[in-house]
Design goal:
31% of the residues lie in helices and 37% in strands. It is α+β, with helices and mostly antiparallel strands and 84 residues long. It has one domain (3-83): Nuclear Transport Factor 2, Chain: A, CATH 3.10.450. Strand 2 (33-40) and strand 3 (43-50) form a beta hairpin.
Length: 84
């Protein structure tokens, strides 16, 4: 599956693909919204949920690794630094 192929799927097909082929990577919160990051082959998918009721709002696929910066900033590596 490529990103362009994923992009043309309807929302339910995208959800099914994420459930069957996606690898969970991270969850973050942003203004009352849970954003769950998955990797699917050579691209990533973010699933946006309303935090209070877990209703799926939207799905965004991307392959630009610069968009991962928001996740990398949330990883605490202080314990790792102590081991080095």
């Amino acid at each position: 599956m490529t990103l362009p192929e994923f992009a043309v799927l309807d929302k339910q097909e995208q959800i099914n693909l994420i459930k069957s082929k996606g690898t969970f990577l991270f969850i973050r919160q942003e203004a009352g919204i849970d954003v769950v990051l998955y990797q699917i082959g050579g691209f990533y998918a973010e699933v946006y949920f309303e935090a209070y009721n877990k209703k799926n709002m939207r799905i965004r696929g991307f392959d630009d690794t610069a968009l991962l910066d928001v996740y990398l900033k949330e990883i605490n590596i202080s314990e790792l630094k102590q081991l080095l």
